[in-house]
Amino acid sequence: MSKGICPVCQTTEGTSMIAEKTQYSQRHGSPYDRGSADSYYGREYDPHYFKGATYSTEEVTEQDMTPEEILAYAAGYQDNEASGNKKEW
């Protein structure tokens, strides 16, 4: 998958390509949390997460993530994009 392009964040007539709202873990460092944070800080779409606390535990990159983990990252990214909640520098 190409870094910087969120394949499930594209919308058609304002509706998400993620058809069903799923409850994702929002633990700090989780795939959903990292997707949301990347969007908030204006970073590229780049699926990853941390096994524990962000930056102080092992990072899992896209190549080692399950499809479900990638979807959770994408959902966090897309949810934040849809909310328009962005860091003001």
Overall mean pLDDT stands at 86
**Structural class by SSE content:** alpha+beta
Strand content: 5-15%
Spans where pLDDT lies below 50 across 5 or more residues? 11-17
- H/E order of the elements? EEHEEH
Give the quaternary arrangement of the chains: single chain
Shape: globular
Question: How many strands, which pairing sense, and closed or not: the largest β-sheet?
Answer: 2 strands, antiparallel
Keywords:
89 residues; alpha+beta; two-stranded antiparallel ribbon; 2 helices
Task: Summarize the entry for a quick read.
This protein has 89 residues and is an alpha+beta fold. It has helices spanning 31-40, 67-83; strands at 11-12, 15-16, 48-50, 59-61.
Describe the structure.
With 89 residues, the protein is an alpha+beta fold. The protein has a domain at 29-89. It has two helices and four strands; from the N terminus they run ββαββα. The protein has helices at residues 31-40, 67-83; strands spanning 11-12, 15-16, 48-50, 59-61. The protein has a two-stranded antiparallel sheet with strand order 1-2. Strands 3-4 form a two-stranded antiparallel sheet. A hairpin with an 8-residue loop joins strand 3 (48-50) and strand 4. Helix 1 (31-40) packs parallel to helix 2 (67-83). The longest helix is centred in the C-terminal third of the chain and has 17 residues, at 67-83. It is globular, with a radius of gyration of 12 Å.
